[in-house]
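Regression report. Comparing outputs from two consecutive submissions.

Submission 1:
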Amino acid sequence: MTRSTILIRPLMAVVIVVTVVTVALSGCLGGGDTTPPPGTHTVDIISSGYGGFAFDPSSLTIHLGENVTWTNNAGVDHTVVSDNSADPFNSGILAIGHSFTHEFNTIGVFPYHCSLHPTMTGTVTVIA
């Protein structure tokens, strides 16, 4: 064997291993698929007329065990904070483009608001 062959074989082996691991991990980590799983409902945080903001839709009915994902599509930070202690949730600050998901495991009516903009309110109703 030549000296270059001795050096190239280990390098090729490393390249092959890295490629295989990258392909395997991209499949395990979702491979860039951003489609929400079944049973996930979406609420957009939007700018509404006259400099206001809103949850869209502001009222949502879902089934027990389903998720709601709120996405901040407005031009400023927001939060999503529950007003019902039976199933509390708090997104913390959601920067522009960021999302928060909560799974609802209790039947009932769950009002929520944005703590930074208290006039922004919404309701999730969970049925069996």
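Submission 2:
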Amino acid sequence: MSATPFGSEQPTYSQPPAANTMPAPTMPAAPTAVTASGITDEEKEAIRQGVFGALAYVSQADPGFFAAFFESAAGAKALSAAPATVQQLLAGGLLLPEASSLEEFRAQAVPKLRAAVQIVDAKEPDAGAALRQVVLEAVEAVGAASKGVSGNEQQAIAAIRSALG
């Protein structure tokens, strides 16, 4: 033991203390939850990927560092004004893109949105129209958030509008 300036003694080690050798506890896989409408967790994740991907698709169409902040805030504001049924579909934690490149993301964004709309139409038809309206309002807000809607953003919004049907 060695003395400290405060008079207490601290142990000295010739080697660092042994690391915890016990394995980390593991949790059994949770069963897939299903909402009252029959939407599974996996389908909800697909819906979220499609919707949030659509907003990012418009945002990246005319990129800019500060523009990304304005566009993100505009998209969040539009989504927060969504009806409760749509907000329930979009609720969840952090969502990270699954694409490994910008080109891959661009190729996946519109098809993922189309798939998300198909899931909602099949499982919760009343929410389908509301989801379409919310997504369209949100992507238009994203496009207009920084210096107005550019030509590239107009093309992205047109692709999304087409995917929404």
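Expected: both submissions complete independently.
Actual: both completed, but the second showed a warning that disappeared on reload.
Relevant detail on submission 2: The beta strands are 2-3, 9-10.
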